[in-house]
């Protein structure tokens, strides 16, 4: 059942609650592959009322086993393996004794003597890595012409309902995106090979249900979670991860900056069916007591290995924050607002040296290719206010990210590029165009952008306006913004509002890009609305519970949910009802009458065209 | 004080509560005119902390006397006259014995014997109208070259802060809007004369603080209120009106469809400093017991007079729903969803006759010009789903509205045009372009549009995405959508969320259009954010209370509001703090070093340009 916490007792001070069970009227189906017959791709099917005379509506489903009525969820054990066998079957990996967890991985140093968080009971002691000289990335396979199970999985997921949708396809305005009528495994492979899409899928994250990020796929969304120095605990973060994907998050970033980072991440990884991203410099900074200038390549490198062994699927690396770009931010209204960006700026200034992330980038690639950790090249110099949007610092960094993309691709590493931030509407398109141009169509992954700075408390909305647009223009994944942005840490409710808001932005973008399958859900819901199938209207919505709750605030009686009216107009008059009269009327019009009516309209239209503005002469003084 | 209901005792079953007092850190100033020295134009001034070393920030203020600390608010008496003297001074109006209120005006018929609503105590018995043969519209004066007090009032309001803003003006991307650096009274006059803007200002609404709607002015927003057959009462509607303008609604539409429509409207009119719009066919329908086919021109005409005498500032008239267009909706997914549109469609079908609104349009104009009621030409055939957007029915009606615009202009009537509705993003621009083309730049006034149909409960957001875009493209006023859209009647909280969301959309549009004064508030807030002036950040926001509340959820201590850190990163590390180091560093760089750095960057950039994509050869298989 939805929203009833499934309590799982664990040893230790916290108890882990996550929400499980299907969404209303929904069941989970698994589709199998043709090339890889053992893959089981989840799809959510929403049943309609019998009076609809319509088949169930299938929707993309990132929620994992948590919404499967038959799944046994055990947070203590973690999720079952989805792709462990696929990885091993390729024969290019080996297991080895992993790096031992060190006290500083969990912020244990100085006066802090012990971890407060319970350890995950089933830590894998021997992680996988590529055998010497091998590249185990999806890009490496794609370049060699191999369709991996991950690629076929993604093709089936993305292709949802498209065979039915092709005939009614609205071409949209795709701004150069090339979305085929049908997504084939080979199409996925080719997109990965040319770097236009990625499948973030660390070989040490067997629980992952593969998904793709690229401009020719459905627009994805990311939700950020994570503790901070002032709040949060392990149980709350695992709960937020499950909660975020329940409402539609396609990936989750763990941005923890407090204590117990390593342990928190282990719980998240082992229970996550979606790719997990991190910003490794955050943990590295904790290891040096928060003193940016004390960071070293060795500490950073060690952190990368630590996280790669745990299964992190993508790393935000701010390697574009170069020393010469730092002074470009001095005259900004809001300077450097990216946490990672400012850490690196501080380091560069303190040492008066080029960034070690930039200088050691090839070495970082070596690590990423050995575990298939995708790059999310961070925009450390993104604008923190509309005033700073699209400035010299931002675009200098972007061009550097394009350079680094090529370096990473040369090593078969998968790459996406992070983008702003705060950008007024008229400057959004330039961001997308510059990114496409300088980063060679590597997927763009943007935060918002926020289109105005004057609405703290509503920045999910200021940014959804920008996110929908940049998604339409070509951004492949949108990083959510919650109502608490700039003000505090999101709680459970904020996470849900942020995710649903970004599902709206992503879906609006899919519709505008002309994604063949996107429109089916809108049309089904619109028909339900028109037919007063209230239950179907709720169940087809992004948030059935809120929709029903709002309806019930005005008309709480159960009968009102089958009533052919609503609270806006009341029972006596209803525009929807009148339309039925129109249909009856139109049906009764025989062909002659119809033709006459059409002729009449044509006449009128001709007349209008002929006489135009001259028909009604302007008033004398104009 | 904000948000403390000021209880006003009234005789009768209801008690009227409205929220009064200034918004946080704000005071109301009144600016006087140069041509009309007696006008007092309200401006809200937000004080900043002394450490800001910045002057207070002035913002546009539609809130009326309710936020004036010195105002005596008495709902029983209504607001004081702002412009009664201006109207009389023109010498072209006369008072007369108004139409007597009839029982059916308040839904008293059949079994309903008496009104439940208390009467407004101070009804004007002798309304004003134009002397015989006179046109008393702002357009009529404008065409004669007259700058009315209303026009100068608007110029001062719109010009807010612009003299300071000109130098930093971001040109934006105005899509053909021609926004001058400074708005002069003569510019307002010329825009009114050519029909590109309106000042909705019924001569019987002396309480009005004039405002303009037009593509070369700030984008405005409208909030809908009104009772229905199933809910609401007089006190709640007056409260919602005051509450809506408190958060920024520029006009309010009273869409009441239940009992006591006349009396409810009287309370609203007498207490409203903003233009009030109505859909007269709603009340006319009530007068004929809800039977659309029983409507007659006489009943409709009488309703127009009734409402014009009360002071309604604009009428939605669905005169474009013509008989030949009605069958065009038969194949739609959601038919006709406009209530007014379906009433007229029903009438046309029942009588198999052309709409009386269309045929009698010239007579409607006569009424409007005698009271200066502006037209809001209704889009009765607007799409109710993305599937029906931009179809034949919608655009056939739009072209008719363009025709009617010319007819109205010939009679010196002010006109705006209503627009959709439900439109996916890639079809929004076409709406604006068609409207500009066929309606001769008469102001466009759109509902949303909603960019997807799959998020009931969040349609303030699905529609804000579309509203921001169409506002940018040229829409002059955005009709808000609340979270309850499609589900129920908005309560007080929904009204606030709807208004704030639409202020965001309108402001994002102003920024993108390059409105000279819009950016000042964003920049002031961004500086406050960067300086950790938390109080200033809250006070400059559209909703200070929510911003502060969200902040306090994570860091409730009063000290945290002056702390130079926030809950996201905690006290130890802060990117904002690091930027100060960057500034110190950049300042220390002497000229030689700066030049060297710049040279270095130039070199790098040249190198990149020269070698470009060839520098990093693609991997072998690509």
Automatic annotation (TrEMBL), chains A, B:
It holds the Pfam family ThiC-associated. One of its GO terms (biological process) is thiamine diphosphate biosynthetic process. Its cofactor is [4Fe-4S] cluster. Pathway: Cofactor biosynthesis; thiamine diphosphate biosynthesis. [4Fe-4S] cluster binds at residues 566, 569, 574. Zn(2+) binds at residues 422, 486. Residues 22-94 form the ThiC-associated domain. InterPro entries: ThiC, ThiC-associated_dom, ThiC/Bza_core_dom, ThiC/BzaA/B. It catalyses: 5-amino-1-(5-phospho-beta-D-ribosyl)imidazole + S-adenosyl-L-methionine = 4-amino-2-methyl-5-(phosphooxymethyl)pyrimidine + CO + 5'-deoxyadenosine + formate + L-methionine + 3 H(+). Substrate binds at residues 224, 253, 282, 318, 338-340, 379-382, 418, 445. One of its GO terms (molecular function) is 4 iron, 4 sulfur cluster binding. Belongs to the ThiC family. HAMAP family: ThiC (MF_00089). Homodimer. Catalyzes the synthesis of the hydroxymethylpyrimidine phosphate (HMP-P) moiety of thiamine from aminoimidazole ribotide (AIR) in a radical S-adenosyl-L-methionine (SAM)-dependent reaction. This is Phosphomethylpyrimidine synthase. It comes from Pacificimonas flava.
